[in-house]
Predict the structure.
Amino acid sequence: MSKRGGRGKVSHKGRRRHFTDEEDLKHDLEKAKREQEWRQAREIGSDDEGSGSDDSSSDEEGASQKRKGVSGLIEIENPNRVQHKSKKADNIEVESAPTQLSRREREELAKQQEKRRYQKLHAEGKTEQGKADLARLAIIRRQREEAARKREEEKKAKEQAKAKK
């Protein structure tokens, strides 16, 4: 018997996951690009060969898109018919008009703006907490100035004592 025990399907839990490397992705993209260029070159070559036999019919076909199935046989001129054109993600234009924000997003923006405004007022000392912080800073500055003055006086006193000896 096997170590896994029992028969049946093997669970994939606990197995290592496989992630694609950047190099592999780049290689695949380059390969797809080369294949697309080759197909385009092949289509251009086949169009050139077919145009020599009948110029008038090939010009008409070249002007219209290639149609699949019955739609190539039947011309429809219905103004109410909607033709869906597929758009690629690269070709879609992003609307420049601002989108409507949800209530949560508006509240979040208002909250951020209020926080910035409060921080500005706090730094200027216009809030109660800001006034208290500025008072504390002023006290600390005075203490540091006094400590620096005392150190200078002590240095001068030591120098005078050395000079007297």
Observations:
- Confidence is low (pLDDT under 50) at residues 52-63.
- The chain has four helices and no strands.
- The radius of gyration is 40 Å.
